[in-house]
Design a protein that fits this description.
extended, 69% helix, 7 helices
Length: 198
């Protein structure tokens, strides 16, 4: 049985209204027109790469899968419309009969959204698997660093300059995939003493 607990120690953070913000605070809080255009440009590049290269696209496409092709986008739209229509018809039927049965409405929605559910579950499993792989790879690299088998500064220098040293050849693709964030989190674990090598 699941339980919900509430902390007895609460922290309250005051957030000022946008009306009370200075120009600097507004600039820091929201995207500028330039930043928005940069994001849109990056998005268009990703979509173009995705449509050109398919599964070989080297950019992150999570959340953009429906834009991979016009057929995929159309299928998604049809499913959404079918779902809406089936729920509205069931609500109309129940209204005419003078009943209210949320389970029947749920069944209608589930039946028409099964494809979307299966797709989401498949993507979620893929993301979880990738995250586990990245973390395991980052741990291997951190273990090598802590055992002085790879000097961290030299490793990053080799990769950033794309020099093909023995370290860069062996670990460049590994570190590019794991990204610096995973390594930094492990360095924090090391400094706090909570790191356990595997």
């Amino acid at each position: 049985m699941k339980k919900v607990q509430f902390s007895l120690e609460n922290e309250i953070f005051d957030v000022i209204s946008h009306v009370d913000m200075s120009d600097e605070e507004k600039f820091a809080a929201w995207l500028t027109d330039r930043e928005q255009k940069k994001l849109e440009h990056s998005l268009l590049k990703t979509i173009k790469s995705m449509r050109t290269n398919g599964s070989d696209c080297r950019r992150c496409i999570r959340g953009l899968e429906h834009l991979a092709s016009s057929e995929h986008s159309e299928q998604r739209e049809i499913i959404r419309e079918c779902n809406t229509v089936s729920v509205l018809r069931e609500q109309h039927r129940q209204k005419n009969l003078g009943i209210y049965d949320p389970d029947e409405i749920r069944k209608m929605s589930e039946a028409t959204s099964q494809w979307s559910k299966n797709t989401a579950l498949t993507l979620g499993r893929a993301d979880a698997s990738e995250a586990e792989t990245l973390l395991a790879d980052a741990r291997k690299v951190m273990k090598m660093i802590t055992q002085n088998r790879i000097p961290p500064s030299g490793l990053y220098r080799d990769i950033s300059t794309k020099k093909h040293s023995k370290h860069a050849n062996k670990y460049a693709s590994l570190l590019e995939r794991t990204q610096k964030m995973a390594t930094l989190s492990l360095q924090e674990e090391l400094s706090s003493g909570s790191y356990r090598s595997q």
